[in-house]
Specification:
This protein has 301 residues and is α/β, with parallel strands linked by helices. The protein has a single domain, classed as Metal-dependent hydrolases (TIM Barrel, Alpha-Beta Barrel), CATH 3.20.20. It is built from 13 helices and 8 strands. An 8-stranded parallel sheet has the order 1-2-3-4-5-6-7-8.
Length: 301
């Protein structure tokens, strides 16, 4: 099976896989998501696997579009644009977000509409700048996502309390899912934090660290996420699930995270795959009436 990967960095994946293997992987996703790949009509379309390529710098969007251009007719691809809290972006948060918006505008003029803003957020592990500078960069992207009516993909590492507080200020209670949903990607906390993010209206996405030996808190959290708020990802080329921890990953490796999550939740891998695909397509262009589907990558819409 080919599984939805709700968060991958395909430029880096391509460098590590090589052009031939990378193109073969994209072809697998395209075939699995193509109309007529299996029976099931609209229900199948919503459950077809999705591959979400996530941005981290304002200047990476054009190159990622060019990389994926040979697969422009694939209904399996979605593209996001965001600014990760690097030292460079945090040197002038306002200028970084202005550059991001300009890149999104240029892509739109070329016929490409991004499916989400992100990833952006707080990283207190690397601490590339003060919490105040990180908050400015994060809040500006949340505002941009709300203004464009797009989801926001959130990076939160060792910064739970501040992430939650910023989301509470930026998203009125009950509005997050409908108006501009939030995804906590590569979730790295425990069940209490997961419950708090759920109460704030967030989706929660788990990566390959779900399978790591010391990740009991992650596994407890995964078990309690409601089915309609759950996503699974690789964050490739990082976070390779066991037993390949420490090696570069690709979206192919997400299958082992599905196996682990299915066991934790008492579900079949096939049912979980349908659930996660439905959630990803709901978020990134299939179900949200106010959201413009990326025309370049979603030819079926």
């Amino acid at each position: 099976m080919v599984f939805t990967d709700s968060h991958a960095h395909l430029s880096s994946v391509a460098e590590r896989m090589g052009a031939e293997a990378f193109e073969a992987m994209l072809a697998e996703y395209a075939a699995a998501a193509a109309p007529g790949a299996a029976e099931g009509g609209a229900a199948l379309k919503c459950a077809a696997p999705l591959l979400v390529d996530v941005g981290t710098e304002p200047g990476d969007l054009a190159g990622r579009i060019e990389l994926l251009r040979p697969r422009e007719r694939s209904s399996a691809l979605r593209l996001t644009a965001g600014v990760w809290p690097s030292a460079e972006s945090l040197a002038d948060p306002g200028a970084s977000v202005a550059a991001l918006e300009a890149a999104i505008d240029a892509a739109r003029e070329a016929g490409v509409r991004v499916a989400a803003i992100g990833e952006g957020g707080l990283d207190y592990h690397h601490m590339n700048a003060s919490p105040e500078a990180q908050a400015e960069l994060f809040e500006s992207q949340l505002e941009l996502a709300a203004r464009l009516g797009l989801p926001m993909i959130v990076h939160s590492r060792e910064a739970f309390a501040d992430t939650l507080a910023i989301l509470a200020r930026a998203r009125p209670t009950g509005a997050a899912v409908k108006d501009s949903p939030v995804v906590i990607h590569c979730f790295g906390y425990g069940p209490a934090e997961a419950s708090a993010f759920l109460e704030a209206g967030c989706f929660v996405s788990f990566a390959g660290n779900l399978t790591y030996k010391g990740a009991e808190g992650l596994r407890e959290a995964c078990a309690i996420i409601p089915a309609d708020r759950l996503l699974l990802e690789t964050d490739s080329p990082y976070m390779n699930p066991m037993p390949r921890r420490g090696r570069p990953s690709s979206p192919i490796d997400v299958a082992r995270s599905y196996e682990a999550a299915a066991a934790l939740r008492g579900a079949s891998v096939e049912d979980l795959a349908r659930t996660v695909s439905h959630n990803a397509r709901t978020l990134f262009g299939e179900k949200m009436d106010h959201m413009e589907v990326p025309k370049f990558f979603a030819s079926e819409s």
